[in-house]
Every structure is written in C-alpha cells, then in structure tokens.
Amino acid sequence: MTATHPDALAVPADLETPSLVVDLDVLERNLDEMANLCRGHGVELLPHAKTHRVPQIGLLQIARGADGLCVAKLGEAEAFADAGVSRMTVGYPVVGRDKALRARRLAERVDLTLGVDSVDGARSIGEVFAQDGREIKLILIVDSGLGRVGVQPGEAAMATRLINEVPGVRVTGVMTHEGWVYAAPDRADLHARSQAAAALMVGAAESIRADGTPLPTVSLGASASARLAAGMPGVTQIRPGIYAFNDLGQIALGNATTQTCAVRVLATVVSHPDPRRACIDAGSKALSQDGLPAAAHLGRYPGHGLLVGLPGWRIERLSEEHGWLRWHGPGEPTPLRVGQRVQVVPNHVCTVFSSLNEATAVRQGEVEATWTTIGPGASR
Amino acid sequence: MTATHPDALAVPADLETPSLVVDLDVLERNLDEMANLCRGHGVELLPHAKTHRVPQIGLLQIARGADGLCVAKLGEAEAFADAGVSRMTVGYPVVGRDKALRARRLAERVDLTLGVDSVDGARSIGEVFAQDGREIKLILIVDSGLGRVGVQPGEAAMATRLINEVPGVRVTGVMTHEGWVYAAPDRADLHARSQAAAALMVGAAESIRADGTPLPTVSLGASASARLAAGMPGVTQIRPGIYAFNDLGQIALGNATTQTCAVRVLATVVSHPDPRRACIDAGSKALSQDGLPAAAHLGRYPGHGLLVGLPGWRIERLSEEHGWLRWHGPGEPTPLRVGQRVQVVPNHVCTVFSSLNEATAVRQGEVEATWTTIGPGASR
C-alpha cells in the first residue's frame, strides 16, 4: 500500500496502531444518503447504534435526519440517553424485573419502545410498569426466517393479543431482523429476499390489525436490505446499522464500494519471518473473529478483512493480537517491511468498534476527534 | 441448572446479565498452585496478563508469588505500571519509533524487557534508546512450531548476534509461545509436545551461549504446557495466562476441572420460541467467537461454551448479543423458562474479559469487587 492508493483513507502518519479510523466525509455522505432515501419513501429511519456504540455518532445520525436510534441492550440505551438521544427502540427481548426497573427510569426521560417475543417476557416488564398505572410501548419481534428470536409470522396476531392482555404494556408494532438476506449470492437474490422479508412483515401486521389491534409500526432491519425494504408498501421504519460506515460484508453484497466504506483498521507489519508469511499487530482484539457476513462471497474476499493495496496477501488467521498474513498470489510475494503500515477494510464493522472500544475520526487526513464506545455494561 | 448444581458458582441472585463472574477462592488457589510449582522448580513465573487485562488481578498475582508480569502490548504494560507493577516483559515484537519512545518512558519506572524477532524491529527500538546512551533488554522470540512470529531455532544464534550489534539493545533471553501444544489429543501427547517445546528452546539458548552471548532467560508460555515445561532442565521462566482462571479449553485438555475453573458467564434465557430452541443474552460481545482452543476435543465440548447443568442444550451459534441454544440431547428437551438464569463455562477466558471489559469478583456468593479491564488503547 502507498499513501496514494485509491482504496486507502488519508490518515495522519503518526496514528498508533492498531486503530480504527473513520473518515467523516464518507460517514456523512452515507448518513445523508440513507436519510434522504427514507424521507423520499416516507419511512422512519432508526439507525441501529449497536454498530458503533459511540454517543457522538448517534447524535450525528439524528442531526443528519434519523428519527431516533435502535439499540440492542438497555445499557446502550441508557448511555445514548445520557448523551441526549430522546427516542429509542431496544430491539431485543427485554426480560426480567431488573431490566424493567431500569426501563421505567429510562422511560421517564426518553420516548422508549422495548422488544418482546413472549408473554412471559412481557409480564416481567409489565409488572413493574403497571405498579404505578403506567404503560410501556412494546414492539413484537417476528422471526422472518432467521430462526433466532421472535414469534412466527402466523402467530403474530395471537401473540399480540395475549401480550396486550398483560397490564402495563402495549404492542405498537412488529419488527424483524432479516439477517438471512446476507446469504444472497447476487443482487437479484438480495432484492427477492428483501421483498420477501417486507411482505412477511406487512402480512404479519395486517393479521394483527385484522384482529382489531391498531399497529402503527412495521420495522425491518439489516443494512443489506434496508434500501430495498424502505421502498416496499406497508413498511414504516428501517433500522440499518452498518450503512453508516459499510464494511467488506456490504462491499461483497454490492451495497458499497471501498470509496463508500468510511472505516479502515490501521495496522503495522511487526514480523516477517519468511517471504510468504508476516504478522500485523491487529488480531481478534482489533478485527474481531467475525467472518464475512455474506458467506456466499467468501471466495472473492477470503480471510479476516481486505488488505488495501496488497493483492496476493491474505489475513489468513487471527490470534488475539496477531494477524497472520500469508501470500496467496501468483509468483513471488510482494515484499513487506517490518514497520510498514497497512490499512484493512474489516469484514464486520460492528465487532471492530466493540473490540477496540475506540475510533479516530479524520477529515481530509486530519484528526477531528477520538471517540470511545460505551463502557462496560453496554451489553446489559 | 439449579443454584446447587455442583458445577455452578455461588453468585448473588441480583447480578445483571450478561456478566463475567470470578470466584476469588478458586482464583487464589490457582495462583498459589502455580506459584508453588514454580518455586519448587526454581523457575520464574511471569503470568501473561493479556488474559485478564485487570490491574487488580495483576497485583494479586504478584502478591501471591509471581515475579512480574508478561503482557502482549505496550498499552497493557503502561496500565499495569500505573497500577504499581514493577517488572514486565512485553512478549510481542515491539516495532517502531512511536513504540520505542513510549518504551523509553516506561523503562524509567519499571524493569522492562521487550520482545523482538527481527533486526529491523530491534533497530527501530535501539535508535531511540541509543540516543541517550541507554540500553533496553530484549527477549528473542523463537518460533517453536506455531508458525506465527519468531525466528527459527536454528537461526537464533545468528539473529541474536545481529541484533546485539544494534546500539541501544541487548538480547537477554529467548521466549516462545508453544501454542501448538493445544492440538494435543490426550495427556501423553501434551506431555510429549511440552517436552519438545522445552527441548527446542533450551537448544536454541545453548546455541546462542555457544556463540559467546550470555543468555540468562529461557522462557516458555502457554497454560496448556506450563506445569510440564516448568520442570524441564534449562527452562528458567514460564508465562502462563489462563491458569489463573481456567476455561473450557483447559478442562478439555485435562489441566482443569469445573471445580478449578474460577469463571462463569452469567446469562438469562430471553427467548424460547420453540421447545428445541432458545436464546440467551450472551452473544459474541460476551462469550467472544473463540472456539475451543483444543480443537481435538471439540467432539466432547461442542459449541460456544458449556451450559452448566443443562446437558443436551448446546450454544450452537452466536450473534453479537444472542447465544443461540439448540437441543441436541436424547428425547424431549429439558424445558427452559424465559427469564431463567444460566451459567456458562466459556471456551476461552482471555477473549471473554476483553469482550465484556468487566468482571465481578465473588467470594462464597458475595460480591467483593467489580473489576474493569484496561481501557481503549490496550492493544497498542
């Protein structure tokens, strides 16, 4: 890689490695593009902030047109509330009295909606709210095909009815994370999967409305499908996370290019014991162990991220602090130098933020800010 | 799991999940056992503190007989120095002027040794030290078979000679991380691998001494082999990390039992959409994506950790915040309850500490302390 490689971000030469760098110009363009698209379709944009866990980025998303934030856990919601975010959905089955007590305090200062996928879960929350005659908005998690959490679409109406019988809670919408769209091998299939997810969710919402429950929100997630889902009739909200930065997963799916990818992990070659092997100082505690989400594209983007400007070199394996490089190119290996800096487009940006717990924001090669993620307890 | 299951740690009922819990009685027994073993063999114990990255645990290790600490990165060394640790080895190829400047400041207040595996790396460090006529101790990283960093054993003498020609540095020992011992399928093979690693390193040291360089330190790593390596003639230092806590990897290798494993990840069942599937609130941001280090034992311990007291249930897959449980037992699934708490023996304790960045220390079921890991920058 040279400093002028077209896929390299301009960064100060003295940034220590390993570091996560965010280019603010690219980030802002990505935020604007999605906000404009949502405005155009009349759907709400609730970016998933578990991607970055950085209060300043959440505020920037709202300043540039987002309607609030989605988060995974109450710990994240509390930290974003402290930073001034006033509307959030916790897109996770919130369960248990301890969480309910925290949610009740949080609901006093922000417009809060909690994920739910069981009557037992709803009851453990409702108990605390009903005690003071209050009510918390819930959003029913529907399993659109991922097989993780959520009720089946055909059970959505019955689940809503049973949950709404629990004092202290009220179901106001349905949501899904259509993570199975990531398996799409090409654009046409991605389009078809996105349409299918939207149709399932709109159908689930209609079945609930037909059962007599008003249901304003039909919410889809996933940066992979967000742009397509936003245009589908009946969808009222999208919750993409990665779109703000993009990563190799989004590039592989055709949703991004290296030019629209706002992040790089800076690393240094620390060892080069033979011409076909080397190590960089970014291991799983920087890049995370996450593979490419789009497994269908592993053939084109093998390994633990894309080494910018070093075709033939592959990040074949990670230890905690070591990225194991191996030459896979034709002919003789491109020589590396101990001390040489490299840029990596990471496979999955969400887990890089939470591995390094810090990012450096640059604009035109100059540092504008250093951001730290929400501290310990974010996952609770 | 019931509260009285023999493999469960006693923990307060109100700890929020997901949490990493450390039992202090078990931890202290583990520390004492290894310190006594090292004292018995007359070898130094430099526990690898990248395992926990918790200043208080590092101090406890020293209070209970360790001779100093090993760390992976300068960022860790700086934080442990701030906490009062006075002797450390950075067991990583330290490369570059920025690192050298930090190492020079650090060497003013602690007894510091830096890893090296190349003349270029040594030069980038030596330059800064030689400037004021100072000298920094280096330890030569030897590749004993892992194929990651380090010089080959047969090149150790030549590498030492070339590095010692660099002004400002002096090689005082050889070290290896014999990570390949983790592939041992049984105790006999583990013993053979540990002996082989020790023999290689003692041989490399002898070749350096035969070349005329005094070389006090012969250092092996890896909790898997530490107890065996400590007894091998010529080994002067061991650097185990996981031994303090143990984990499923050590249990699989026969180095530990659930009773000597000081850690559990507490989690809550948050979703149970069908009798054969459920989700807990501990995903890769709690348990990490690390598989069992001892791949040879995957058949006995499949998945992302051991669910205490729930045979038949397996943590089959992780998303960032979801642990996907699936029933693999014979017959009908053991029923779970939304809201139920579970304890997980993690595959790899090092990456759990760095995922959650926090641990709760308990003794006889009561919380004694909450520890946080070194903040952002630990990996630099």
From TrEMBL, chains A, B:
<dbReference type="GO" id="GO:0036088">
    <property type="term" value="P:D-serine catabolic process"/>
</dbReference>
<feature type="domain" description="D-serine dehydratase-like">
    <location>
        <begin position="262"/>
        <end position="363"/>
    </location>
</feature>
<comment type="similarity">
    <text>Belongs to the DSD1 family.</text>
</comment>
<protein>
    <submittedName>
        <fullName>D-serine deaminase, pyridoxal phosphate-dependent</fullName>
    </submittedName>
</protein>
<dbReference type="InterPro" id="IPR001608">
    <property type="entry name" value="Ala_racemase_N"/>
</dbReference>
<dbReference type="InterPro" id="IPR026956">
    <property type="entry name" value="D-ser_dehydrat-like_dom"/>
</dbReference>
<dbReference type="InterPro" id="IPR029066">
    <property type="entry name" value="PLP-binding_barrel"/>
</dbReference>
<keyword id="KW-0456">Lyase</keyword>
<dbReference type="Pfam" id="PF01168">
    <property type="entry name" value="Ala_racemase_N"/>
</dbReference>
<dbReference type="InterPro" id="IPR042208">
    <property type="entry name" value="D-ser_dehydrat-like_sf"/>
</dbReference>
<dbReference type="InterPro" id="IPR051466">
    <property type="entry name" value="D-amino_acid_metab_enzyme"/>
</dbReference>
<dbReference type="GO" id="GO:0008721">
    <property type="term" value="F:D-serine ammonia-lyase activity"/>
</dbReference>
<dbReference type="Pfam" id="PF14031">
    <property type="entry name" value="D-ser_dehydrat"/>
</dbReference>
